[in-house]
Amino acid sequence: MRLNRFWLFALTLVFACGALEIAPALAASKDKDKQTKSSKVVVKSPKKPKAVRVTVTRSNAPVVAGPPSLATALGLRGQRDELNLKSSVVMVVNQDTKDVYFEKNPSVSLPIASITKLMTAMVVLDAKLPMDETIIINPEDAHIYRHSRLAEGTVLTREGALHLALMSSENRAAYTLARNYPGGLPAFVSAMNHKAKDLGMDHSHFEDPTGLTSENVASAEDLTRMLNAAYQYKVIREFSTWPDMTIVIAGRPQKFLNTNRLVRSGDMDIGLQKTGFINAAGRCLVMQAKVNNTPLLLVFLDSVGTQSRFADAVRVRDWYERMPSGAQPIRRLM
What pTM, to 2 d.p., does this model score? Predict the structure, then answer.
């Protein structure tokens, strides 16, 4: 009996010791399971903010650029020249003698954007229509050129419309000038092309009075002829270089900026200037300016960047100022 009790006590002691050894193992096993479960949560948590991937994708997405200019398509952009100009087409002509002192791709016909409005202004002035006659921005004007501060129903004088077309490059103003021409828009565009022919612009063509169409094309040589002709009109000289102006539209005064003043009068002695831009044309600038007391006709087409036209004009000015007296021109513009 005592022996049985002894063995019972021994077995109990063995089981107790085994339990003590197993308990840490069970605890460790449970901890391991917890850690395993916890690690799964940690793995899953970074997968929740999927927006991180989307954000990275968006920030690295390429910016969709506009269609290339025609000069780019023709392989003219980026061509090197001795002045390191950023314009694909350049011409520097003595206005008095027609001597050409610098040229870069002068004969290729390219879209000219709002430089067109110099021709538009000449055709309007040649018609000798009453400049104080009122014209109205009608639904047709508003429909064709949607982006404008000249709302439908705006009443302007012909002079006011011409001022805004030249100074602020207002497309609705230019279009309504053409629409109010005797014979309407078709007669106006025909007059533009006749004027171009009379000026000897043999590599030019016009399809509308604003320049928003890429069908309005001219070569640098032709643009020097047009620029010289436009300079003969006092009104065009004044309006293209006029300070900002305020006009009343629908009873409220609105300020219109001079969009031509990339080259400021403090930088150069400017008699006339006009800028232009559409994708097909790139950034363009034509100007008449005096350098070393010499009147120059300057043409810059398909310039890279918004300020490069200005920089090119300044480079040409500096180069011409350093030119030794008696320097021979490249040729004479016929």
Answer: 0.78
Other C-beta atoms lying within 10 Å of the C-beta of residue 276? 27
pLDDT in tens, 140-180: 888 887 778 888 889 999 999 999 999 999 999 999 999 99
Annotated catalytic residue: which of 69, 88, 109, 114? 114
Active site residue 114: yes
Using CA atoms, how far apart are residues 242 and 233, in angstroms rounded to an integer? 14
Where residue 247 sits, what CATH number does that domain have? 3.40.710.10
- Decide if 9 is inside a domain: no
Set 86, 104, 117, 195: catalytic member: 117
Q: Are 262 and 285 in contact (CB under 8 A)?
A: yes
Residue type, 20: L
Residue-wise DSSP of 245-296:
EEEEETTEEEEE--TTTTS-TTTSEEEEEEEEEETTTEEEEEEEEEETTEEE
With respect to residue 27, please indicate whether it lies within any of the assigned structural domains. Answer: no
Catalytic residue among 69, 88, 148, 169: 169
C-alpha pair distances (Å), 298 with each of 13, 31, 114, 246, 291: 110, 83, 16, 30, 11
Domain extent, residue 123, equals 70-332
Whether 117 is catalytic: yes
Write out the H or E segment, with its range, that includes residue 313.
helix 308-322
Q: Residue 115 forms beta bridges with which residues? A: none
